[in-house]
């Protein structure tokens, strides 16, 4: 029996390594293809002025080797099945061209693959406007959050810093890291444990290390007092490969009949403690039998349902976009209450479905995603209802949403359509036609370059 177990373990190990080897080979092949394409139609110096990026050559222990641990942490989900297609995951079905079972925790892998296609890459760090560190920060953090290194979480990142200091140290010292950036596929809170905490609490101390104060970190959720980080959209499951697939989706969103006034896709809200999710459930579940609700349905010719709840508790929706995208296509408003943290991937699923997001606190999006969702335009594409008004003062969400004129709703939906390209991560190797539309990756790169450009003059004056 022990012999069979040992053989099974060896077989699984070999299978995993072969799978990862294929990923590495595909990455190398893709890079070769990209180099060939770039020589046939290279960007001009003028096109890349102040836009050159150098990808730091890190040992594989900082990125690809970490993927071999994809099933090592019992308390964390096994993410091995979602490594396919360079982090996009497997397609939702065989004939799908744009939809994948994407795990947001693999944003680092998705970003790494996409930056290989960036047209203004340079091998010379001295001419680069920015230096990208392909370090899978969040994946490496798992050994501190769920693994054997929990008690040394304050050391997360030090091995990387020591490498940057010892290998071609001039690249770092040129601007003391101010021109460096990386991606962290977890909320910034998970990397913000104070260095002097004793005993240690949840998280690592990566963003608290003085050594990395100057580095720009792209995260799916920033803190209320962002210092190093800037928030970028969670990856959804929509990754079109060409302009035709993208435009076909846009047409579907436009044609979709919105038969439900509002939708909540999520879990929670079933306890006795007052909170916004509990208020939403109460309004949706008990309000259905309310006579005023029937009056609302009778007085309009649009909605056959006031509220639709999609149960996403216990991870039911994480890798099954069909479960929530179809209902979102049929709803006018998608409620985005905060959960364990203020932000939600569902915000970007809703926008992709043309469903107007309804926020209950500003930290959920407005002061997070300034590059992708301009703060001054939030009233054009979203609704804000303070959660305190709903939870403690009895304000009905239904009354607020029904009070918005239909002409205003149509205008907001038009604004949502314009945002869809900015919050999606198109598939790597996508068509030239689709590349003309800036997506979440492109917008993040633009924002990062501008952020670094704004910082450097002040740094140079100080020195």
Plain-language structure description:
- The model is unreliable at 1-14 and 20-40 (pLDDT under 50).
- This protein is of the alpha/beta class.
- Strands 1-2-3-4-5 form a 5-stranded parallel β-sheet.
- It has helices at 2-40, 107-115, 137-145, 158-166, 169-173, 243-255, 276-285, 291-299, 321-329, 346-352, 378-381, 387-391, 397-402, 406-423, 432-435, 440-462, and strands at residues 53-55, 130-132, 180-183, 216-219, 229-231, 260-266, 305-311, 331-336, 356-359, 383-384.
- The N and C termini lie far apart (67 Å).
- The protein is globular.
Short description:
With 463 residues, this protein is α/β, with parallel strands linked by helices.
Biggest pleated sheet:
5 strands, parallel
Strand composition percent:
5-15%
Order of helices and strands: HEHEHHHEEEHEHHEHEHEHEHHHHH
Helix amount:
25-40%
List the total number of helices. Answer: 16
**Strand elements, count:** 10
How far apart lie the N and C ends?
67 Å
**Rg over alpha carbons:** 23 Å
What is the overall shape? globular
Strand order of the largest sheet: 1-2-3-4-5
- Low-pLDDT windows of residues: 1-14, 20-40
Which class of secondary structure composition applies to the elements?
alpha/beta
Mean pLDDT: 88
């Amino acid at each position: 029996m022990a012999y069979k177990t040992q053989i099974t373990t060896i077989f699984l190990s070999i299978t995993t390594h072969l799978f990862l080897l294929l990923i590495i080979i595909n990455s190398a092949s893709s890079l070769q293809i990209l180099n060939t394409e770039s020589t046939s139609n290279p960007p001009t110096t003028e096109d890349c002025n102040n836009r050159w990026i150098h990808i730091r050559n890190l040992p594989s222990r900082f990125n690809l080797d970490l993927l071999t641990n994809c099933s090592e942490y019992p308390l964390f989900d096994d993410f091995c099945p979602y490594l396919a297609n360079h982090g996009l995951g497997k397609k939702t079905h065989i004939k799908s061209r744009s939809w994948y079972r994407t795990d947001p925790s693999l944003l680092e892998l998705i970003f790494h693959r996409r930056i290989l296609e960036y047209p203004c890459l340079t091998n010379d760090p001295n001419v680069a406007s920015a230096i990208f560190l392909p370090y899978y920060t969040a994946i490496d953090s798992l050994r501190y959050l769920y693994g054997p290194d929990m008690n040394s979480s304050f050391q997360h990142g030090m091995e990387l810093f020591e490498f940057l200091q010892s290998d071609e140290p001039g690249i770092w010292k040129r601007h003391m890291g101010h021109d460096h950036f990386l991606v962290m596929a977890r909320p910034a809170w998970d990397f913000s444990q104070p260095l002097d905490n004793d005993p240690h609490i949840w998280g690592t101390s990566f963003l608290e290390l003085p050594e990395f104060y100057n580095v720009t970190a792209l995260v799916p959720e920033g803190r209320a007092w962002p210092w190093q980080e800037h928030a970028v959209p969670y990856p959804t499951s929509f990754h079109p490969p060409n302009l035709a697939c993208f435009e076909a989706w846009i047409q579907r969103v436009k044609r979709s009949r919105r038969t439900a006034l509002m939708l909540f896709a999520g879990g929670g809200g079933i306890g006795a403690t007052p909170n916004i999710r509990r208020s939403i459930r109460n309004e949706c579940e008990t309000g259905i039998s309310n006579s005023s609700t029937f009056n609302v349905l009778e007085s309009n010719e649009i909605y056959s349902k006031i509220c639709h709840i999609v149960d996403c508790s216990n991870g039911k929706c994480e890798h099954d976009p069909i479960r929530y995208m179809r209902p979102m296509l049929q709803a006018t408003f998608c409620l985005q209450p905060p959960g364990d943290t203020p932000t939600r991937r569902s915000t970007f699923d809703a926008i992709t479905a043309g469903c107007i997001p309804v926020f209950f606190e500003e930290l959920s999006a407005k002061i997070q995603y300034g590059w992708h969702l301009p703060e001054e335009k939030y009233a054009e594409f979203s609704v804000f209802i303070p959660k305190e008004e709903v939870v403690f003062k009895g304000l009905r969400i239904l009354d607020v949403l029904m009070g918005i004129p239909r002409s205003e709703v149509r205008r907001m939906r038009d604004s949502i359509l314009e945002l869809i390209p900015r919050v999606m991560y198109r598939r790597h190797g996508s068509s030239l036609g689709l590349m003309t539309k800036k997506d979440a990756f492109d917008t993040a790169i633009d924002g990062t370059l501008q952020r670094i450009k704004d910082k450097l003059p002040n740094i140079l004056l100080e020195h």
